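Q: For a teaching handout, I want to show students what a protein-ligand complex looks like in token form. Below are the inputs, and the small molecule is nickel (II) ion. Please produce the holo structure.
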Amino acid sequence: MEVTVHRVAYFNAAHRLFRADWDEAKNVEVFGKCSNPNYHGHNYELVVSVTGEIDSETGFVMDLKVLKKLIKSEIEEVLDHKNLNLQIPTFSTTNPTAENISIFIWDRLRKFIPTHLKLAVTLYETPRNYVTYHGK
Ligand code: NI
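A: Here is the structure, written as tokens, with nickel (II) ion included.
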């Protein structure tokens, strides 16, 4: 019987969505306010979901204390209060959309989650705009 456990976390970060090979009008047309050259912030809400069989000894799918620490060290300490375009090398060449940030988070967490467990990431950029990524 598979069960999914979830852990919620928060971080604040600044970004700008744009393509250097497009002129300003095209960037504004496609990315709207998110293309502001002076950057802007979002209060991101992250939901990390781990699915698997319940361990017969502990009754856990995964110890949420362990997941909490992992999210803190691998995600919050890396992304919180950062300018994503300027301070996270991945996003110097890749637009820091919610889609791409969710893949970045999934990739960082995956290597620490036991392989028999499935990982999914849900990232809210605003309360009404969010993305999910379940891996490749
Ligand atoms: Ni934005």
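A: Two things your students might notice: The pocket of nickel (II) ion is lined by residues 15, 34, 40, 42 (CB under 6 Å). Residues 64-79 form the longest helix (16 residues).
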